[in-house]
Automatic annotation (TrEMBL), chain A:
Family: Belongs to the energy-coupling factor EcfT family.
TM regions (residue ranges): 26-53, 73-94, 106-129, 149-171, 245-262
UniProt name for this protein: Energy-coupling factor transporter transmembrane protein EcfT
Subunit structure of this chain's protein: Forms a stable energy-coupling factor (ECF) transporter complex composed of 2 membrane-embedded substrate-binding proteins (S component), 2 ATP-binding proteins (A component) and 2 transmembrane proteins (T component).
Automatic annotation (TrEMBL), chain B:
Protein's name in the database: Energy-coupling factor transport system ATP-binding protein
Signal peptide extent: none
Similarity comment: Belongs to the ABC transporter superfamily.
Membrane topology: Peripheral membrane protein
Matching Gene3D superfamilies: P-loop containing nucleotide triphosphate hydrolases
Record lineage: Bacteria, Bacillati, Bacillota, Clostridia, Peptostreptococcales
Amino acid sequence: MLKDITIGQHYPTGSAIHKLDPRTKILVTFALIVGLFLVKNFIGYIFVVSFIIMATIISKIPFKYMIKGLKPLYILITITFFINVFMTSGESLFHIGPLNVTREGLYQAVFMAIRLILLVVGTSLLTLTTSPIMLTDGIEHLLNPFKRIGIPAHELAMMMTIALRFIPTLLEETDKIMKAQIARGADFESGNIINRAKSLVPLLVPLFISAFRRADDLAMAMEARCYRGGDNRTRMKELRMVKQDIVGFAVAGTLIAVLVFLRL
Amino acid sequence: MKSMIEVENVTFQYKNNEEEIKALKDISIKVKKGEFVVIIGHNGSGKSTLAKHINALLLPTEGKVMVKDMDTKDESNMWDIRQTAGMVFQNPDNQIVATIVEEDVAFGPENLGVTPEEIRKRVDEALNIVDMIEYREKAPHLLSGGQKQRIAIAGVIAMRPDCIIFDEPTAMLDPVGRNEVINTIKKLNKEENITIIHITHFMEEAVNADRVIVMEDGKIVLEGTPREVFTQVEKLKILGLDVPQVTDLAHELVKEGISLPADILTVDEMVMELCRLK
């Protein structure tokens, strides 16, 4: 059960988009988010949607898979939709009980729902096409210039790498402890919410103890391998911007320019 | 020949609940370059504490530890010492840092500031030595214990150490994994000429060593070639340590009046000697 969780949801296909420099993808995604908030009418969306569809086709990720990623969000999208429908004042269309549905409300609701969907699809395109390690690497490089104002870029990236590394290990361990406790009569599945929360204590205590022990061991192993922070450290795989990255920036730049133009 | 490692009159003391505990008591050991030394002893005999001294993870309370003529107490030597004397720990899961095998092997050289091309070369070389090259793009958590431990060994080899300290590397492995790791260690000593200090409580793993050191209660109680040490069956038994099964069998047979040499260490030798009996 626990093993089904996949963090980052990386979907490798080896496409041109997968091979882009992670920095390019992060920056383009960031620009896309900003662009989405610049959009004021549906014409703007046509451009964003065609950009996302184009990127998805190039990335060879099946559309079905992308849509599946929206499922957990549909409650959020529905709530936003209805709040917008009922809470916007304007020309009244019809009434449902005390609630007043307005033309502006309906327009606003559809508009916001599309924005949310595009936001999720756009950002999931980043995680689907970039492995967690590349993502961390990209973030580290992008944060590097801010080191001077005290942002610990290397340390943040190292923490993310170690967290990613230990997710499967700790999940396995949780499974093991759970089975050990079930074998001794623990019940994790029945009772009300308070009882269930209480039954997690014999699971969490050993898990935390072992996690701390692992942290201690790992710190020692890292020291033994001469780890001394990010200074003077080299990397085996260096990030390099190539022609494709420039193309990526150009396309994203054009999109932003169009969106800004439409807004004027 | 010059000594690789010199441990001189080392005492190590630490506090546990206001109680002073001496983990090492006036220990002296010299290890030559290229030597294969096995240290055996019970849990709490101080063998792991000793290992951590050689890597400058712990510093002696009294006495001194020299690695290739570098004093571990001198902080400016610390990184050179850790590069010279690599260390492999017991739990393979807790010493792998990265989420991809080759990235993990690269971790050590990256810390040393080696150039990217050179790192690539060393990583491939190290993975070849431990016979794990075909797994280089796999995620470590999908590998078996023995494979993970070999990755950890590759991570140390990639730093080009002269000496590797193994702190019970087989304690958490199944027999298959244990064999894999032991064969890798032997190979490193024979083919790469790396000085090995192997800490274990499996007696069978000590048979191939150049020298065996038995520790008990922070002191060295026996020292010598495997033959010299394991023939002292009675003494080892008093210490509560096992001898290799074959040696034990030979010892029992000699006691029953069968004329066998008392220093049989391997099954092959036993077969030879038994066939010679008439």
